Amino acid sequence: MSSGNNLRVTVRHGDLELTFEGDVASVIRSFHEFVERVVPAYSLAKSLLANVTLHGLLNSVKDYIVYDDSLGFVFKPTAHGLPAPDQVLLFLALRKAEHLMGKRSSSLTNLRELSEGLGLKRGTLTGALSELRKAGLVRRLERGDYEVTQMGLQYLVERFSPRQSG
């Protein structure tokens, strides 16, 4: 089944057989991509579930973003006034949203893309990422890519949703 830190999984679906081997995160990601391609109902169910969460996320951060068909999500000037960790988390969440909408091939974002997209100094950016990782709001993957976690998405919705008055 596995050796060391590598995982090997063989999947059979009808006449199709495929083996995934590598680090755990890569195998899981490859497996999900495979299932989405060969079982359309899985992909549809995932999209429907994600759209509910996606709607809540986008509704809660609407004061800070705008969507452009050619550019994707773009920060409004108000977003640049947010603390650096919130900007980073929002940027990663929007990349995930674009992925779920089929506008990006992956929800992963590297340090260069974050730096260019946010205009933050490298030290500020790495400090914010470190803080977000320690809080469990962002995860860093093996190649230096970053991704928002489900907890990070929930944090954004709670942080930016209008307060209900009792």
What report would you give on this structure?
The chain has helices spanning 24-38, 40-60, 84-100, 111-118, 122-134, 150-160; strands spanning 2-3, 6-13, 16-23, 65-68, 72-75, 138-140, 146-148. Strand 1 and strand 2 form a beta hairpin. With 166 residues, it is of the alpha+beta class. The protein has six helices and seven strands; from the N terminus they run E-E-E-H-H-E-E-H-H-H-E-E-H. The protein folds into two domains: 1-38, no CATH class; 49-160, Winged helix-like DNA-binding domain superfamily/Winged helix DNA-binding domain (Arc Repressor Mutant, subunit A). Helix 1 (24-38) crosses helix 2 (40-60), helix 2 runs antiparallel to helix 3 and helix 2 (40-60) runs parallel beside helix 6 (150-160). Mean pLDDT is 83; it is low at 48-52. The N and C termini lie far apart (55 Å). Strands 1-2-3 form a three-stranded antiparallel sheet, covered by helices on one side.
Range of strand content: 15-25%
Q: What distance lies between the first and last C-alpha atoms, to the nearest angstrom?
A: 55 Å
Radius of gyration: 18 Å
Going across the biggest sheet, name each strand in turn: 1-2-3
Low-confidence stretches: 48-52
Number of strands: 7
